Amino acid sequence: MCHPSWGRARAAAQRLSDFARLRRVRDRIDREYALPLDVEALARGAGMPAGHLSRRFRQAYGTSPYAYLTARRMERAAALLRQGGLGVTEVRSAVGCPSPAVFDTRFTELVGMEPGAYRSAQRASAEPVRNREAPAVEPNLA
With contact defined as beta carbons under 8 Å apart, do 72 and 32 qualify? Predict the structure, then answer.
């Protein structure tokens, strides 16, 4: 008969192992967000069934692997649109979002405005502001 604490220790070790694999999945998403990733591929890379990965990822990080991937893509898209130089279609491709409709919808949900409007707003706020010349004032040398 096994001692009860052995079962608890084994369960704790399994949770720690799962968390390490989940961390590697999250790190992979952060690095490879522009590549075609899906939960099945992430699960295979972690050596976990897809359903188990999704449940454990949500428990650990409060969101599904797909939602986390989408958020990373939209954060990067917002950064690229702020930098300027790329159009919305180029940004969508650069972050690995295959569908224009999905990109527009997710970007709008997460950022609060459509990608084109966001790009325009960023461009408008980046325009230089001309300062008026300060009026000449005689120095007080007394």
Answer: no
